[in-house]
Amino acid sequence: MKSSLNIGLAVVAVLIAIIPGAVLAEDTKLEHTEAARAAAMRLGKTLKARLVSTMKTQGPVAAVTVCAEDAYAIAAQVSEDTGMDVGRRALRVRNPGNAPDAWEREALSQFLAAQDRGEDVSKLERSATVRTADGDVFYWAKPILLEQPCTTCHGSAVEPALAATITDYYPNDQATGFAVGDVRGIFSVKKRLP
Ligand code: HEC
């Protein structure tokens, strides 16, 4: 038992000696992944809390500006604090500015396909290091699932006055007709690597 542990440790020691670059890359990836998770959680929690409290105190029409403006302010703050580019993306967008890039689109498609197969997507995430024209970028994504309070503005029966306000802001809105539990979009985190 003890000797097999020793052999195991020796193998690890040799591997670390041979492939320091690879080990370092794995460590760095884990570090970025954990930072991305925390950043996405902060954006999601802050935004949801503000949405729910504004809907309660001022009604859903007023809360539209929370999603339209506060979402960016919160995302910008989290991005500044973490040095990562943190945001929300979707395939059926309300704001065309939230359309995904190629990697994000693929991640979204995979999450939607997993949901179509009946998988529990709530714990899924994807990450990759992507070579771009501007250098390597670490990408991370996690599904945003629709919850009950979200149906007010993204469900199948949006109240007419609210629907009119939404269409005023977003004439090409595609983000209604969702049910609780549906993959509504993703939290996307990107970090340019040195
Ligand atoms: C008061 C209305 C309202 C509620 C409630 C609401 N949203 Fe939104 N949502 C919007 C608006 C408006 C936008 C467009 C924001 C923008 O301009 O980026 C949006 C955009 C989004 C986007 C970005 C992609 C896109 O379509 O532009 C996601 C993802 C999203 N909402 C998810 C949710 C989730 C999840 C909830 C529930 C926790 C929720 N929303 C609750 C109004 C709402």
List the helices and strands and how they pair.
Layout lengths: L1 H17 L1 H39 L1 H23 L2 E5 L12 H15 L9 E7 L2 E11 L5 H4 L5 H10 L13 E10 L2
Antiparallel strand pairs: 1-4, 2-3, 3-4
Helix pairs in contact: 2-3
The chain binds heme C.
Heme C binds next to helix 2, helix 3, helix 5 and strand 4.
Q: What is the N-to-C order of secondary-structure elements (H for helix, E for strand)?
A: HHHEHEEHHE
- Side by side, the strands of the main sheet go 1-4-3-2
In round numbers, the mean pLDDT is 90
List the ligand species. Answer: heme C
Poorly predicted segments? none
Count of structural domains: 1
Q: What's the assembly state of these chains?
A: single chain
Span from first to last CA? 43 Å
Structure summary, number of beta strands: 4
Q: Strand fraction band?
A: 15-25%
Cα gyration radius (Å): 20 Å
Q: Main beta sheet, described?
A: 4 strands, antiparallel
Overall shape: it is elongated
Task: Kindly summarize this structure in a few lines.
This protein is an alpha+beta fold. The chain is built from six helices and four strands; from the N terminus they run αααβαββααβ. Helix content is 56%, strand content 17%.
Describe the structure.
The model has no long low-confidence stretch (mean pLDDT 90). This protein has helices at 2-18, 20-58, 60-82, 102-116, 151-154, 160-169, and strands at 85-89, 126-132, 135-145, 183-192. The protein is α+β, with helices and mostly antiparallel strands and 194 residues long. It has a four-stranded antiparallel sheet, sandwiched between helices. The structure holds heme C. Residues 48, 51, 55, 60, 63-64, 67-68, 71, 88, 90, 93-95, 98, 144, 146-147, 149-150, 152-154, 166, 175, 184-185 line the site of heme C (HEC).
